[in-house]
Amino acid sequence: MFLCAFSDPETLEQYTGYLQKSFADHYDSSQENGKVKSYELNVTNNGFCRYKRYYNNGKTEYFAFKLAKFKDMDYYGTTNAGKLYIRTKGDDVIVQTYKDRGGDVDSMATQIIIPLKNVEAEDLNQIRNNLERIVKLPPAEVPKTEVKSED
């Protein structure tokens, strides 16, 4: 216990780095049924998850949320393949669609769904633990700006 008092606390960068590696290692593009040409899935060091899918027909979908807004997650599938549902506290997921039949659409959602493969229960537990630790981090200090009024 004494040694723990002097250990470096884990940082946002460590948590996001773990999540980025996990999503990169386990992402399953085969679940897209050949409709998605390419994708980008990034967890940033400043605490955001961004997921972009480029479809063969030209359509693009973009999802983004602040990891501190994480509420819960569920995994539906097997260790071979499944979908990870990451839920937020409210309508915290930005959803943007470009070049869709219905036009460009901006909306908000409560979850993001990521197709995964070769994922064990321990992998999912570690993803959850890292997300929960990010939520518990103290908010970054925002520099105060002084506002002066002119009389």
Notes on the structure:
This protein is an alpha+beta fold and 151 residues long. It has one domain. The chain is built from 2 helices and 8 strands; from the N terminus they run H-E-E-E-E-E-E-E-E-H. It has a 5-stranded antiparallel β-sheet with strand order 1-2-3-6-7. The protein has a 3-stranded antiparallel β-sheet with strand order 4-5-8, with helices on one face. Helix 1 runs antiparallel to helix 2. The longest helix is centred in the C-terminal third of the chain and has 16 residues. The N and C termini lie far apart (58 Å). The N terminus is likely disordered.
Write a concise synopsis of the structure shown.
With 151 residues, this protein is an alpha+beta fold. The protein is built from two helices and eight strands, in the order H-E-E-E-E-E-E-E-E-H.
What overall geometry do the principal axes of the alpha carbons give? globular
> Count of helical segments?
2
Distance between the termini: 58 Å
Tally of DSSP β-strands: 8
> How many independent structural domains?
1
Q: Give a quick account of the main beta sheet: strands, pairing sense, barrel closure.
A: 5 strands, antiparallel
Strands of the widest sheet, in order across it, are 1-2-3-6-7
